[in-house]
Amino acid sequence: MLVICTPSVPLRDMLEALAEKHQLALFVAPSARRIAEAEPIGDLTATERETLETMRRLGGAVNVATFAQEAGLSAPAATNRLVNLVQKGFVQRDERPRSEGTIYLNPYAVRADEVPAQLPPVLAREVDIFAAVRGQASADLLGAAWTEWASTERPTSDELAQAWLAYRHRHSGEISESLLWAQQALNDQNEAAVHTSGMTEEDLQVIRDAFE
Questions:
Q1: What does the pLDDT read at residue 133?
Q2: End-to-end CA distance of the chain
Q3: Distance between CA atoms of 55 and 71, rounded to whole angstroms?
Q4: Whose CA is closest to 71, among 87, 89, 57, 91?
Q5: Statement: residue 20 has pLDDT above 50
Q6: Which of 117, 111, 112, 122 has its CA nearest to residue 156?
Q7: Which end of the chain has the smaller Cβ count within 10 Å, N or C?
Q8: What are the helix (H) ranges across 99-200?
């Protein structure tokens, strides 16, 4: 079972054709924050689509009893429907202790607030570059940006992007200096080594003299 997030209708149509041709179990959602809107694509019968829709209404995680009641089926019939989708790859089975019963899952069980916020690739690359020239981990730099932006613990992807853009604007001077040093260091490896080590040129000369 694979969930692909894309707002592109042409791409969705292409994925649907591939899924049907190669019997793939795919779901397509507009974005990672809209998993509840994911549509199953592939070789599915009307009954199988109805089963997935029932699971969506129930939150994406069901046991046989809950599904049977919602679908108006007997327990054996409900089990058959769920197992059939497990075999096709559209549903996963989570074995639990007998007292709890087996849980059947599909992507609708993923809540939007459980999806980690992500930056668009262009901004993520920008963070990586600025973090590298400042000698920081990308996650630490992005964490600092978010801390300055807001106090909530779980940002959305859009909020995280706004936080980074605001941080970049506020700290443009520092970032520019770091980028300038990086450019100079690329042209002078000795300078880069001195700066990275924290030693002065005089310190390095003492070391050179000691080994001559």
A1: 67
A2: 64
A3: 9
A4: 57
A5: yes
A6: 117
A7: C
A8: 121-134, 138-149, 157-170, 172-187, 189-197
Helix (H, G, I), strand (E, B) or coil at 61: strand
Residue 94 in contact with residue 105, Cβ under 8 Å?
yes
Domains along the sequence of the chain with CATH: 2-112 (1.10.10.10), 121-210 (no CATH)
Q: Which pLDDT does position 83 carry in this prediction?
A: 94
For residues 42-81, one letter each, b for 16 or more C-beta atoms within 10 angstroms of the residue's C-beta and e for the rest, the string is bebeeebeebbebbbebebbbbbebbbeebebeeeebbeb
The tokens describing 40, both together, are 């199953």
Q: Which amino acid is at 26?
A: L
| Residues written for the chain | 212
**What six digits make up the tokens of 1?**
């079972």
